[in-house]
Amino acid sequence: MKNIALSMAGVIFLIMSIMQLLRFILKAKITVNDKIIIPLWLSMIASPVMFLLAIYMFLAARR
């Protein structure tokens, strides 16, 4: 059961990483409440971090 949860977390992190990378490539703007603009450079930091978390989850699920 633990391995399934770790694998699912890995899949979620991988999807989020791909979405952040696509946001950076497509230069999509994100605004909150028409006031706060989320900077694009934040996606370039978030994407590799989430990708590394996904790899970590997949490796932990294999143990």
Query: How many separate domains?
Result: 1
Give the terminus-to-terminus CA distance. Answer: 13 Å
- Total helices: the number is 2
Overall residue-averaged pLDDT value: 94
- Please provide the ordered H/E string of secondary-structure elements: HEEH
Order the strands across the largest sheet as they lie in space: 1-2
Large-scale geometry: elongated
Q: Taking Cα atoms only, what radius of gyration do you get, to the nearest Å?
A: 14 Å
Helical fraction equals: over 70%
SSE map:
Blueprint: H1 2-26, E1 30-32, E2 36-38, H2 41-62
Helix pairs in contact: 1-2
What can you tell me about this protein's structure?
With 63 residues, the chain is mainly alpha-helical. It has one domain. It is built from two helices and two strands. A two-stranded antiparallel sheet has the order 1-2. Helix 1 packs antiparallel against helix 2. It is elongated and about 45 Å long.
Q: Can you describe this structure in just a few lines?
A:
It contains 2 helices and 2 strands, in the order αββα. By secondary structure, it is mainly alpha-helical. The two termini are 13 Å apart.
Brief descriptors of the model:
mainly alpha; 2 helices; 63 residues; two-stranded antiparallel sheet
